[in-house]
Amino acid sequence: MVTKVIKIDRQHMDERLLSEAAEILRSGGLAAFPTETVYGLGADGLNREAAKKIYAAKGRPSDNPLILHISAVREIEPLVKEVPETAAKLMDAFWPGPLTMIFPKSGIVPSETTGGLDTVAVRMPSDPVASRLIALTGRPIAAPSANRSGRPSPTTAEHVLQDMDGRIEMIVDGGPVGIGVESTIVDVTGDVPVLLRPGAITMEMLQEAVGPVETDPAVAGPVAADVKPKAPGMKYRHYAPKAELALVEAAVSEQTGEAVISRINQLTREKQSQGYLVGIICTDETKDCYPEGIVRSLGPRALQETIAHSLFAVLREFDDLGVDYIYSESFARDHLGQAIMNRLTKAAGYHIIYADKEERHG
Ligand code: TXA
Ligand code: MG
Predict the structure, then answer these.
(1) Average pLDDT of each block of 10 consecutive residues along the chain (362 residues)?
(2) Residues within 5 Å of ion ligand 2 by Cβ?
(3) Residue 262 CA, ligand 2 centroid: distance in Å
(4) Atom number, ligand 1, closest to the C-alpha of residue 234
(5) pTM of the full structure
(6) Please, is 11 exposed, middle or buried when counting C-beta atoms within 10 Å of its C-beta (0-12, 13-18, 19+)?
(7) CATH number of this structure's domain 4-219, picked from the four choices 3.90.950.10, 2.30.110.10, 3.90.870.10, 3.40.50.11190
(8) Would you kindly state where each structural domain of the chain is located, as residue ranges?
(9) Category of 193 on φ-ψ map: left (φ > 0), alpha (ψ -120 to 50) or beta
């Protein structure tokens, strides 16, 4: 299969060109497209065979459900049994935007889309290209992140092409995405909403809109093998770079100080002397403190939006360079930092090195 790439200017969308992508989706094919979070790999979400093609193209386990993307609030009605009151409030506050909610599913949503669950994830993206494409298709679009399973999510069309060339019909190139980490996921099927995946709609924003919100244990740390996380995707080692990644932080304070810098430098020298290629993830404030290794700053430490936006691209770059070990500074865990640290610790397989302590393995 030859993958056709079309360029769409967000400000002046070429409707005729975008209709080609809509036609592919309507006829059961796969087309990747930009959203405000990351690029999605789209298929007709109500077509079983099309949904199955997504799992094949990504190499994704078929029990990991997909998110349905809609272009107007009313399009949710046929997809769900009910819209709970908290969900209505959250929709008012954050749609269109980077918030996905879990609802009891209606009969028309095939089990191939929901990985066999009786709930369905729905989100209404704010990216104009995504929104127009969904409207032109006239169906809810099932779309996971457009990466091969286990790779960092794509934030540019080039990333999608790296992973999907020859595996899908089309890539709609709308330029780099705005946010760079996947949407916040909230389960609204119970009495109290539960955060399943942190994102740009932060815990603080959710609580301000609806009051108390719980956090699924899988957000903070590894789940035991016998526990079934609510978002099945959280059990996989996501966003995994090919290199072995460890976070380095100071146990007494999260701020990056001398202890973290000198531990990263020591680890880097050690691995380099053994012949390994080492990547370092840091910030603008510290990037000149690392004389060895391949040093990449995610941006100024205080600009969480910039840090989030750079993260996946840097992990991919290290993959492309064939880096063996990555040492990353750690970040504050509030606001967007919760999403940043969730992605980083998962990519690291929860390996954290405390700079002011002897390392324990486990
Ligand atoms: O920002 C995003 O959400 C991107 C863009 C393309 O919209 N999509 C995305 O999809 O990140 P994906 O498939 O990579 O991640 C979806 C996550 C998975 O962890 C999955 O387990 C969870 O959502 N999920 C989907 N349906 C669910 C359901 N019914 N119940 C619980 N979790 C669900
Ligand atoms: Mg994904």
Answers:
(1) 97 97 98 98 98 95 94 98 98 98 98 96 98 98 95 96 98 98 98 97 98 94 75 68 91 72 97 98 97 98 98 96 97 96 94 80 48
(2) 145
(3) 34
(4) 19
(5) 0.96
(6) exposed
(7) 3.90.870.10
(8) 4-219, 244-361
(9) beta
